[in-house]
Design goal:
The complex is a heterodimer of chains A (247) and B (326).
Chain A: E1 2-6, E2 9-11, E3 19-20, E4 25-26, E5 33-35, H1 37-52, E6 58-65, H2 70-79, E7 83-88, H3 94-108, E8 112-116, H4 127-135, E9 139-149, E10 152-159, E11 162-169, E12 172-176, H5 188-194, E13 199-203, E14 211-218, E15 226-227, H6 233-242
Parallel strand pairs in A: 1-6, 1-8, 6-7, 7-13, 8-12, 9-12
Antiparallel strand pairs in A: 2-5, 3-4, 9-10, 10-11
Helix pairs in contact in A: 2-5, 3-4
Chain B: E1 2-6, E2 9-10, E3 13-14, H1 16-32, E4 35-41, H2 45-53, E5 58-62, H3 71-85, E6 89-93, H4 96-109, E7 112-117, E8 122-124, E9 127-134, E10 139-145, E11 150-154, E12 169-172, E13 184-191, E14 205-209, H5 220-229, E15 232-235, H6 237-241, E16 262-266, H7 272-278, E17 283-288, E18 301-304, H8 307-325
Parallel strand pairs in B: 1-4, 1-6, 4-5, 5-12, 6-11, 7-11, 14-15, 14-16, 16-17, 17-18
Antiparallel strand pairs in B: 2-3, 8-9, 9-10
Helix pairs in contact in B: 3-4, 5-8
Classes of the chains: A alpha/beta (247), B alpha/beta (326).
The complex binds flavin-adenine dinucleotide (FAD) and adenosine monophosphate (AMP).
Chain lengths: 247, 326
């Protein structure tokens, strides 16, 4: 069984967000980029665990992005991925990314395509289901557990007010959420090995984007916090009622 | 031509996020000079009436148990509805089912998707422009959907629900799904223990606590405050990681993102990753014994002191307030 893990390159979670070019571009100056946490901690680590349990032969990373993402891809190598493809294109929208990944997956035959629950920069939660749509494959969203036995996957996922256990034959697309695996720190051997693992760069094939971003704006933070004495909690309740109007 | 809305029934009621979505679709219909058609599965007479009251002129009423959860089948059924209704805009809630179905349908129809819209759209020629949160709530982006057919999913709790006295015409709709082989089988369904409460993404009030509570044995006071308010409980990530509280309560960047009217944070420091999931809340109250805790910078009301004395006192104050209201 071959697993394809889609990884996105995102600003580190502590980044101070700023825009340039008349608020039409994200300002990357001084920003550290990392693998999107859901893709790394959950999708990739679970894929590696399946390989370690001899349930998968190979874990391939796929990324749609420019050369500057390569450090992020190497981090995925250091964690244990076998090889990677980078589709050399900016990713204008989710559909474009999904089409690129689908085209690659179709030609190269993967049994399991794992994505993260969402990217922490665009928060779309869209690419996984779009890949499944393009390839006409089943899709399981927000999975918290994934096991493979032969040609069958058993997956636990979130539904309104609970969870469910699902079974599905491969091939399958799964979006991975918390619970699926635990974060790992790459070890020295992994870091050394990362340098020589094969990273293939291929041009984008076709490509349609259906949406575009016209501008950004920062969400205003809160300016003043009213401090209330712990001896005057009636006042707090009163304010929540009469001023904030939330109770 | 119509605006098609995917609506859901949950626990015997039309989901609140579905009602919000119908309201939202009515605005788009006004804007584009069309009407709203709601797609619903297994709804009874009262539920159909409520969908009408929210603003749908027509309801495609489906009775098909296989459409309860399999996103492949739901998407195929909606594809048929889009054709039948000649829909140019399809609206979903950005909730569990919406997140699985909307992108799939979007890919099938080559229809641009904005996932998690927070504002009403505007028309710009043949494009529709709509805002959504990006960078985990730190910023907003104005998206333009440029394709002929457009898909929008609405972030729950972005608008209050309004019901009028509109009545919808109901037509039975039996999509032909013979060409789609269901591939996913449900083996088991489990309900969360705190199932009595409103699920976090829909909750209007949330009482949340962090590592400052010291241990799971101290959560009774958090639960009591929540109960008194009618709020849902939540927690910070380390609390879920240490198994003090169930995983589904974890809010933040890597947990559930919420935007209730009221968020009360008890013994939570206010790390940026926590804030990312809660800073869309309308009003934030922070209770922390460290007056330098970063969370106060993102709060509307703050109380400095020991949670172990403040929380029970706050519960009493809420009780008193409620008694005076009656
Ligand atoms: C990539 C990434 C993703 C993350 N995602 C999330 C996420 O989704 N959600 C999340 O919550 N965290 C997340 N984190 C972790 C986050 O950085 C913080 O570590 C975490 O939020 C801290 O939890 P806490 O506030 O409960 O604990 P602490 O930071 O330990 O804070 C405890 C607070 O309680 C106060 N306190 C102590 N005793 C009392 C008392 N008696 N009365 C009142 N107050 C008291 C202290 O002053 C302190 O402010 C993430 C981290 C990373 C790196
Ligand atoms: N540019 C990209 N390259 C590879 N995978 C991506 C890319 N963007 C998104 N993904 C994958 O799709 C998932 C969902 O992304 P999104 O729909 O943007 O929230 C991410 O967690 C990744 O696994």
């Amino acid at each position: 069984m071959k697993i394809l893990v889609a990884i996105s390159n995102v600003p580190d979670t502590t980044t101070k967000i700023q825009f340039t070019d008349g608020d039409t571009k994200f300002n990357t100056a001084g920003v550290t980029f990392v693998i999107n946490p859901y893709d790394e901690w959950y999708a990739l680590v679970r894929a590696l665990e399946l390989k370690e349990a001899n349930l998968a032969e190979k874990v391939t990373l796929i990324h749609v992005g420019l050369a500057e993402s390569e450090a992020t891809i190497r981090k995925g190598f250091a964690l244990g991925a076998d090889d990677a493809v980078r589709i050399d294109a900016e990713s204008p929208d989710a559909f474009f990314v999904a089409e690129q990944i689908s085209n690659y997956a179709k030609t190269n035959g993967y049994d399991l395509i794992l994505v993260g629950k969402e990217t922490i920069n665009y928060n779309g939660s869209s690419v996984g289901a779009m890949i499944a749509g393009v390839l006409d494959l089943p899709f399981i969203s927000l999975a918290t557990k994934l096991d493979i036995s032969g040609n069958k996957a058993t997956v636990e996922n979130e539904v309104d007010g609970g969870t469910q256990v699902l079974e599905c034959e491969l091939p399958l697309v799964v979006s991975c959420a918390k619970g699926m695996a635990e974060q790992r720190i790459p070890n020295m051997r992994g870091i050394m090995a990362a340098r020589s693992k094969p990273l293939q760069v291929i041009p984008a094939s076709g490509g349609t984007s259906l949406t575009s971003i016209k501008s950004y704006s920062l969400n205003a933070g809160r300016t003043t916090c009213k401090m209330i004495s712990e001896d005057n909690l009636d006042e707090l309740v009163h304010l929540l009622h009469s001023e904030a109007k939330v109770i | 031509m119509s605006v098609l809305v995917y609506t859901e029934i949950n626990k015997g009621r039309v989901k609140k996020s579905s009602l919000e979505t119908i309201n939202y679709a009515s605005k788009i219909a006004e804007l584009t000079g069309s009407t709203v058609t709601a797609f619903v599965n297994n709804a009874d007479a009262a539920q159909l009436e409520e969908i009408g009251k929210a603003g749908a002129s027509k309801i495609l009423s489906v009775k098909n148990d296989s459409l309860n959860s399999d996103n492949m089948l739901i998407s195929a059924a909606l594809e048929e509805a889009v054709k039948a209704e000649n829909s140019k805009v399809i609206v979903f809630a950005f909730d569990i089912v919406g997140k699985a179905v909307a992108p799939r349908l979007s890919a099938k129809l080559k229809a641009g998707l904005v996932a998690g819209a927070v504002a009403h759209p505007v028309l710009n020629g043949n494009a529709i422009e709509v805002k959504k949160n990006v960078f985990s709530g730190k910023a907003t982006a104005l998206y333009s959907i440029n394709s002929d057919i457009k898909v929008i999913s609405l972030l729950p709790n972005s608008f209050p629900v309004k019901l009028g006295d509109n009545k919808a015409t109901v037509s039975e709709f039996a999509p032909d799904l013979s060409g789609v082989k269901p591939r996913i089988t449900v083996k088991e369904t489990k309900t969360n223990q705190s199932g009595g409460m409103i699920p976090l993404p829909e909750a209007e009030m949330v009482v949340s606590a962090g590592r400052g509570m010291k241990g799971p044995e101290n959560w009774a006071m958090v639960e009591e405050l929540a109960k008194e308010l009618g709020a849902t409980t939540a927690c910070s990530r380390p609390v879920a990681d240490m198994h003090w509280r169930p995983h589904h309560e974890h809010v933040g960047q890597t947990g559930v993102a919420i935007r209730p009217n009221l968020y009360i944070a008890i013994g939570i420091s206010g790390a940026i990753q926590h804030l990312a999931g809660v800073n869309g809340s309308k009003t934030i109250v922070v209770i922390n014994n460290d007056k330098e805790a970063p969370f106060f910078k993102s709060a509307d009301y703050g109380v400095v002191g020991d949670a172990f004395t403040i929380v029970p006192k706050l519960t009493e104050a809420v009780k008193k307030f409620k008694a005076n209201q009656n």
